[in-house]
Amino acid sequence: MKRRDFILGSTVSAGALLIGNQHTAARRLLSLMPAPQSADSRIEILTAEPIGRIAPEIYGHFAEHLGGVIYDGIWVGENSRIPNVKGIRKSLIDALQKIKPSVIRWPGGCFADSYNWRDGTGPKDKRARHTNFWRDAPEWSKNAPDGPWKYETNQFGTDDFLRFCKLTGAQPYLAANLRSLTARDFYEWVEYCNSPAGTTTLADLRAVNGDRDPAKVRFWGIGNESWGCGGNFTPEEYAAEYRRFTAWVPGYGVELAFVGAGPNGGDLDWTRRFFTKLNERRALGSMWGWAMHHYSWNVSGGRTNDWQKGKGDAVNYNEEEWYELLREADRMESMITDHWNVMGEIDRTHRVKLVVDEWGAWFRPGSEVDPTHLLGQQSTIRDAVLAGMTLNTFHRHADKVAMAAIAQLVNCLQSLFLAHEDKFVLTPTYHVFDMFAVHQGKTSLRTMVTSPRPSYTRNGEAATIRGLNSSASLDGKQLVLTVANPDLKTARETEIAVRGATISSVKGSALTATDMKAHNSFAEPNNLSPREISVRMTGNSLVYSFPPASVTRLDITLI
Ligand code: AHR
Q1: Residue pLDDT, tens place only, 501-520
Q2: Whose CA is nearest to atom 8 of ligand 1?
Q3: Protein residue whose Cα sits closest to atom 4 of ligand 1
Q4: 258 touches 246 (CB < 8 A)
Q5: Which of 29, 109, 155, 375 meets the CB 3.0–4.6 Å disulfide criterion with 64?
């Protein structure tokens, strides 16, 4: 089966080369740096080379009505014995608050284009029940009983989601149904959320159902994967729909940010043709962001491109699969730069920014914590390294990426949490978000890295992937460097130099494991968590040995 045949029926792969952020003059400088005897790697932080502000919205999440994300994950119900705030799992709210979740995307995904927001409003016992988009997915466990994950009960709707956002401090990002509802349904959803109290019938309804005050929702997705489950459109057809949906939408004092449904992975043709068509009617100004999705799923070492056969297990993998997954993740960089370049052919001033609103690892079924958790999977130290690499990539392209959302928040794909009934655990990916949250809103600085490429055997041939993967940000005298080491066996003794500033002190923490399959579980929730580390200072540089399979954060105070 090809990639997501279930939702589409077409395969496109990026297959582009990695484009590093290396700069020749700085590279020359780097090679002149005296390295400590044993150091085999160098990181140089260039304080005079700011890239841009790291949008807090890069630290976004995604919650779809899919398997155990909403029902069991977020929503436990108001009468549940599981501690909750108006039906929302309390432990999830508490853990999320800690990592500053800037934005949460809802209700899908593919589900969004089958969803009528009206069904999720009003008295809960009167709410409509409908077949969930994912009911017929081939990945369902045979043991999965019927329930709201297959037949949507709409117990969690717009008011509940907006409350969840308020409780966690996140901004809502709502995805409109472009495939099966009208433009009117869309702007009435905006009216329901944003029109001032007492001004419209929908504002009155909102006051009865949830909140008197407008939610001021800024981010609106105009469909989702419109090349596939979102309507199977051509880019030209989707551009016409996009224009119709966004042509007249009152803002109610909110600067609405519309996000267009971007390509299938690396499909540059979709981006080019959509931008060209939109521009014919001078409608580019109506778009704030262009969505891109990138899942790391094919660990077959090039043996197959089959969407089902190419996937591996979340926990039981070998060395080749470790590297293959991270190699897939590292394609994010070229996907960003390639799409950015194509967007720039038409949007010459780069008004429109990139929104990577689905990213993460996607494994075959089998490690879900409950049969009702469709696409649920465990998350190991490998996922943590993947998350560290990806967030670093976003920082290195802070001038291009305005928002992102890892897929998905809980019980689905690369989750930050696993939850079932009263059991709840933080995954290693959560810890990376916790360690990296400090970058939000800071200025991304260019880093220059030289480090040996880890080698492995790929389908019988020698292969390598990029070595240390880093990013840095500055806020006054506080410099933060985050580094992922994808090498399974070798620690990287590294000299770290800060150009244009003097180091006063340093401290840090690292997430690592000697077992490449290490993960947290309900039984062993603290197997993996970050530990404090000590870093050596020599003159104006630092020396640190990044452990194999690790994610590290250094907090450097400058004079
Ligand atoms: O995250 C799971 C699914 O992956 C989403 O619903 C869809 O947008 C993508 O194909």
Answers
A1: 999 999 999 999 999 999 99
A2: 109
A3: 109
A4: yes
A5: 109
